[in-house]
Design goal:
The complex is a heterodimer of chains A (235) and B (350). Chain A has 235 residues and is mainly β. Helix content of chain A is 0%, strand content 45%. Chain A has strands spanning 3-6, 27-35, 77-82, 96-101, 104-106, 109-113, 117-122, 128-132, 140-144, 149-154, 159-165, 173-179, 184-186, 192-198, 201-209, 213-221, 226-233. Chain B is mainly alpha-helical. The chains are: A mainly beta (235), B mainly alpha (350).
C-alpha cells in the first residue's frame, strides 16, 4: 500500500528568494574528520524483538561511532554555524528522503533547510513509528504500519540537531540538522566533507557527532578558494 | 444476596485487585522498556480499533504498550462489573460508593493514559498516571477487604468488639501514607529519567551523601532516603503488630507479609540500580511497591476495624452475624434498613 500524508502546515506563500551568492567568487570549505585513538568495537544490535527485522546470517551493528580506514569518522554533521550574516537562501524544491530500511534509518545523519520538505518512508515489512524530538520545532509522533507509507514534514525553525527515534525498535535513531542555509554536509565513509559555494568571508564551522560532541573552527575563505579544514574526535 | 453470593463477590473483588496489580506490572514494563510512544495514536492502535489490532503486529515496543492497553481494558471492564455488582447486591452504601469511586478512577486513569501518549509523555501527566494507578489498586484492595467474610464477621465473633489499638492505627496509617509518598517519589524519579542518576548502591558516588547535586541526583537520593524512612515505619508497624497482636491472625499475617515484601522491595531496588535498570527487575520493583502499599493498607484498615460500628445483622452472612458501617453510612439501602431494624448486637458502637 502506498499512501502519502502531509504533516504540518503548508509552506507560507512568499516571494521566491534568489541565491545571493556570486558563483564566480564562491569558495569551498572541505576536509576530513578522523577519530583519534582506538575506535570502540561496534556493538551488535539485537533486533529479535521484531522477527521482521532479522535477516538470516546478517549481523546488524550499532551506528553510533562508525570509523573507517585511517580513522575516518562517518556520520559527522558539518555546517556553517556563523558568519553568513543576514543572507537569505532559497528553499530547495527537492525533498529530503528519510527511509526506514532493514529496521534502520537511512540516512542516519542528514541535513535539511528550514521549510524544505522531508519525506519519511517505510520500506520495511513491519510497523514503525516516527518520533521526532526537537527542542525548538514541533514534536511529532506518527505511525507507519504498512510498507510504502510516506509522510511529509517541514521543520519551521533552525535547529541542530533534531533526533528521530522509533519507539517500536529502540535501536533506531536518526538526526537531522535544520538550517536556514545550504552550507552543511555529513561525512562519508572516508571521513570527508565539502561545504560548496560559500561566499568569501570568515565563518565558524562546527562538526557535530551524536556521542563525541561538537567542535568548532574559524575559517576565512577567499575568492574561489577551497579551504582545508580537519577535525579530530576522541572518546 | 446470600452467603455464597457474598463470597463470590469477595472473590471477584480479589480478582479485580490482582488484575490491577498485573496492570501495574505491565505499565512498569512500558516505562522500563521506553515503549510508551511505540503506539502513537489513542484510543486506536495504528488506526486499528484496539481490540482488532493483529497479534502478529505486536512487535518490539508495541508488544508492551498494546498489551498494557489490552490489560487496562480488561481491568476497566472488571471494575465496571464490580461497580454494578456492588450497586445491585451490596447493602452498605459506603461500600457501593467505593465501587463508584473505583469506576470513576479507572476511567480517569484510562483518559490520563491516552493524554500522556497524545502529548508525548509529559512528566506531570505520566506521574499522575502512575500515582492514580496506585489509588485504583488501593480502591480494589479495599473493596476486596470490605467484602471479605473476615471483615464482615470482624474476624471472630467471640472477639467482638475488637480492641482498638490507637498506636497501631497511627503507625499503620502513617506507614501507608509514607509508602504512597515513596511510590510517588519513585514515579517522579522514573519518569524524569533519574533512576541511574546515582550509579552505585548502597553508597552514592562512594559516599553516604552525594558530593555534588543536580535535580536528578536530588530525586534519586530522596527516593533512597524515603526508602529508609519507609523501612523504619514498616519495621515499627510490623513489630508492633507481631508483638502486641500475635494472637490475631488478621493483623499478624499482613505484618509478616509486610516484612517479607519490604525485604524483596529493597533487594529489587538495589538490583534495579546494579543491573542498569533491567526492565524486568525495574518493573518488579514497581509492582512490589504496589504490593507493599496494598498490604500496609489492609493492615491499616484492619487496625481501624473497631471504628466501624455494628448496626445489625448481616444479610449476607446470616442473621447471627454483624453488619458494619462507619458512622451512619449505608442506612438508606433497604437491606441496611432491614438490618438496622433488628436488635443491635453486642458491641454496637454509636
Amino acid at each position: 500500500m502506498a499512501a502519502a500524508l502531509a504533516v504540518g502546515a503548508a509552506p507560507a506563500a512568499t516571494a521566491p528568494i534568489a541565491n545571493p551568492v556570486d558563483a564566480a567568487t564562491a569558495g569551498n570549505a572541505a576536509g576530513r574528520i578522523t577519530f583519534e585513538g582506538t575506535p570502540p568495537k561496534p556493538a551488535v544490535v539485537r533486533m529479535d524483538s521484531d522477527p521482521n527485522c532479522v535477516r538470516p546470517g546478517a549481523t546488524a551493528t550499532d551506528e553510533t561511532v562508525v570509523v573507517g580506514d585511517g580513522g575516518a569518522l562517518q556520520n559527522v554533521f558539518v555546517y556553517v554555524k556563523d558568519g553568513l550574516g543576514g543572507l537569505r537562501f532559497p528553499v530547495p524544491s527537492t525533498p529530503i528522503l528519510l527511509d526506514q530500511k532493514g529496521c534502520h534509518y537511512v540516512p542516519h545523519v542528514f541535513g535539511a533547510q528550514v521549510d524544505q520538505s522531508l519525506e519519511i518512508v517505510n520500506s520495511d515489512p513491519t510497523l514503525h513509528n516516527v518520533h521526532a524530538i526537537p527542542a525548538a520545532n514541533q514534536e511529532f509522533n506518527m505511525g507507519q504500519p504498512l510498507p510504502g507509507i510516506k509522510h511529509t514534514h517541514q521543520f519551521r525553525t533552525r535547529e541542530v540537531m533534531v533526533p528521530f527515534k522509533c519507539d517500536v525498535h529502540p535501536w533506531m535513531r536518526a538526526y537531522v540538522g535544520v538550517l536556514d542555509h545550504p552550507y552543511f554536509a555529513v561525512t562519508a565513509a572516508d571521513g570527508s566533507f565539502n561545504l560548496k559555494g560559500l561566499p568569501p568571508g570568515t565563518y565558524t564551522v562546527e562538526a557535530w557527532h551524536e556521542t563525541l560532541g561538537a567542535q568548532t573552527q574559524t575559517a576565512t575563505i577567499g575568492e574561489r578558494e577551497t579551504r582545508d579544514i580537519t577535525f579530530s574526535f576522541r572518546t | 444476596m446470600n452467603r455464597i453470593a457474598g463470597v463470590l463477590l469477595h472473590l471477584f473483588a480479589a480478582l479485580v485487585a490482582a488484575s490491577t496489580a498485573l496492570l501495574i506490572f505491565a505499565g512498569g514494563l512500558v516505562t522500563s522498556t521506553g515503549s510508551g510512544l511505540s503506539v502513537p495514536d489513542w484510543p486506536n492502535t495504528y488506526g486499528w480499533f484496539m481490540l482488532t489490532f493483529p497479534l502478529d503486529k505486536m512487535v518490539g515496543g508495541i508488544f508492551y504498550e498494546h498489551s498494557h492497553r489490552l490489560i487496562a481494558t480488561f481491568v476497566g471492564l472488571l471494575i465496571v462489573v464490580l461497580a454494578i455488582w456492588l450497586w445491585r447486591a451490596e447493602p452498605r452504601r459506603w461500600v457501593r460508593r467505593l465501587g463508584y469511586i473505583a469506576l470513576a478512577a479507572v476511567i480517569t486513569q484510562g483518559i490520563l493514559g491516552g493524554i500522556t501518549v497524545l502529548w508525548f509523555l509529559p512528566d506531570a501527566i505520566s506521574i499522575a498516571h502512575a500515582g492514580l494507578a496506585q489509588l485504583v489498586f488501593c480502591l480494589t484492595v479495599s473493596i476486596a477487604l470490605f467484602t471479605s467474610p473476615g471483615w464482615r464477621r470482624a474476624y471472630a465473633r467471640e472477639q467482638l468488639p475488637l480492641p482498638g489499638d490507637r498506636t497501631l492505627q497511627t503507625i499503620a496509617a502513617l506507614t501507608t501514607a509514607s509508602v504512597y509518598a515513596q511510590i510517588m517519589a519513585g514515579a517522579t524519579m522514573r519518569h524524569m529519567d533519574a533512576g541511574l542518576a546515582i550509579p552505585d548502591f548502597p553508597l552514592a558516588f562512594g559516599r553516604l551523601v552525594p558530593p555534588f547535586w543536580n535535580a536528578q541526583i536530588a530525586l534519586n537520593y530522596a527516593h533512597r532516603v524515603g526508602a529508609l524512612l519507609v523501612s523504619a515505619l514498616v519495621l515499627a508497624v510490623a513489630g508492633h503488630g507481631l508483638y502486641h497482636h500475635r494472637g490475631r491472625a488478621e493483623l499478624r499475617r499482613p505484618s509478616l507479609l509486610l516484612l517479607v515484601l519490604l525485604a524483596v522491595q529493597i533487594t529489587l531496588g538495589a538490583l534495579t540500580v546494579l543491573s542498569g535498570k533491567h526492565y524486568v527487575i525495574n518493573s518488579l520493583h514497581v509492582v512490589t511497591g504496589a504490593m507493599v502499599l496494598g498490604t500496609s493498607l489492609v493492615l491499616t484498615l484492619r487496625a481501624y476495624r473497631p471504628r466501624f460500628r455494628w448496626v445489625g445483622s448481616d444479610p449476607i452472612h446470616g442473621s447471627t452475624q454483624g453488619f458494619d458501617a462507619p458512622r451512619d453510612w449505608g442506612l438508606r439501602h433497604p437491606a441496611a434498613q432491614a438490618c438496622a431494624a433488628g436488635t443491635p448486637r453486642r458491641g454496637a458502637r454509636a
